[in-house]
Amino acid sequence: MMNSVKVYKQPKFIISIIVTMVICLILSGCIPRSIIDELGITHTIGVDAEKGKIMATVLYPNYTNSNKASIIKAAADNPATLKTNLGQKSQNQIVIGQIRTFVFGVDYSKAGISRVVETICKDARMGNITFVISDSKAEDILKGIKDAPPLFLSHLIETSVQHEGIPETNLHTLLAQYYGSGIDIYLPNISFDNEKQLRMNGLGIFKGDKLTLNVSNKEAFLFKIMSEKNKRGYYDITLPKKDNQKTNKNNENQKGKQNEKKPGNENNFAFNSLYGNHKITLHKKDNEYTVNVNIKLNVELKGIPESINIEKKEDFHYLQKSMEKILAKDIETFLIKLQKNEVDPLGFGIIYRSQSKEWNEKNFYKNVYPKMKFSVKTDLNLRQMGVGE
Amino acid sequence: MKSIVKEQFLVSTFFTFYLVHSSQIGIGILSFQREISKDAEQDAWLSVIVAGLSIHILIWLIYRTLDQKHNDLVAVHDFCFGQVIGNILSILVLVYFLLSAFTVFRTYIQIIQVWVFPTIKTWQLALVLGVTIYYIVSGGFRILTGFSVWGVIIPAFLLLLLYFPLQYMNPRLLMPVFNHSVKEILLSTKASILLFVGFEWIFIYYPFIKDAEKGQKWAHLANGISTVLYLFVAVVTFMYINQDTLQHATWATLFMTKIIQLPFIERFEYIFIFTWILVIIPTMCLPIWACTRILKRISINVKPKISLVFFILIMVVAATFIEDFVEVDKLGKFISKAGFYFLYFYIPFIFLFKQFRNQLTKMLS
User: Is the torsion defined by CA of B287, B341, B178, B39 positive or negative?
Assistant: First the structure.
């Protein structure tokens, strides 16, 4: 072998190259081909419950005929037939490999999403999709965005997650929450406002596979800073009136202005959370569990009330302390709200499980979770306040 | 009957590292997490360590069994049991090697069918893979050694890919640590042994390595690195996917690569599956090569070129007879069992028997 390495003679070498190329050409003909113009590459799919059946609406861009997207709707008793029923209504083969967003209509998410999650999401051809729920029917949402660019919905969700304080969800988190014990599913909620504009509208929280609770965008932000590394987002705070007036004495000359009716609330302002960290720990004391939530945020102040003179140490301190207090109070109220509704999207069950030898999901949610106490500590670092004072 | 290999067919001592490492890393790394965590759950990483350590002992035993005079398994068999029984045993080992190659062969076809081309027929893929294997194995042992370098480089890239799931990890999922009984951990250890199968081919290619007895440290190093790799993948998986979800994820590593979304590649797992063929090829080619070698060495003395075609034909034909995923699963379970008995019973047995036989010859002379 090695001692018989010959210098290849030219013709033989060329023939072998030609044979290789021919084999390449022939072999690539063996696999089933998919021509991109002839596929209905779905980007968005919505699922509703209708008359006891599962109804799916898919939206796919129609590149060949016009730039308008097409909508197809089909109903079936199981998700697998659904795909065929959709395909039978389309001129192109519907493919699901590029689905970016999955919308669950309100009826379907209230009835339980298990069937779709178990069938479709386990399909190897599914990518890492984002799931959202909506306040209305998923069909309406899809019809509403028909004229928008093809990836409008997935981009909307992506930006909201990255910058506007909506918690991140994807196929991985959904499956982990769906199958995993000790945590409940949460999905972002989208809906149309009065102007017919699509907006993110808080979170929907599930118990098992059924939607049970909707929380607002404000609470969604609180949720995000307690669960994720990315803590970008705005949170608005209304300073209490009484304390405010005390400091107001210093700025007597501004009082006249304040009496005029201006749009907006003078005492209300927002901070922009830049980065920070969170720590949730569970402590046991005499059979009573306390959840300690520690949140550190570096924030940028935006439009603080005129009554506060930030350069004064006293005012600065007051502002910081009251912001911390309000944030901590809001978080605690939110946690108690979750507890009252018997949902656990933050995964206290996982924390409990990691600290105790035995784990029984039913027992935890029946006996331990409802009695849990919460203690929230917030630490705000007022890092920046824009240029110019 | 010592196996004599001409100088020009030998490979350097340190290639033992590539050979052992690439034959241990293969199809198993795509799906092992679910199997090993069935009993010990989040403590299963411990089982990977235990299994890795036990393999070190077995490697040591192999190097004690082989020596200058009896430098491959066929020679050892002949020495211990005489020619007839020795040949029968060698053929049994051949069947085991062929089966382990076949398992990888069929499972990889299964993965391609499930993940990429659902309509492709088994015989089509089997034929393409069979031709590839024929081409590589007919090149001889040195070509195989060269190929096994890929089996070291590409799995190393897997570590880089794990960065993406690491962003979503939750260390709490590993806790509570040591929450399982010794029995459960040992059961998981048994399940993770299949991961390390492949090093036993040293028994056959030992004479092809220059100063082979010095290669032992390389074999240990290779096994150590395999253990670390498996451990790392297992720990990341356990932190990324919780135990309940893991039981639903058949190919957990592929499932993890789903999270990788690059601006220019939306679906990374496809690239992953096709790159993995380079990792899998040594684990199919080395045992087949070992089979042809055994046939050449035993008394029948079949020419490797002929037996190679025969073995590949068997694999291609047999692959088409396994039709559904249940049977593929069964095959995997069977080879896992066979591997377990071969490693933990047969290797110590042959070691002890050889020692006994050595003593016997000494006493008689």
Answer: positive
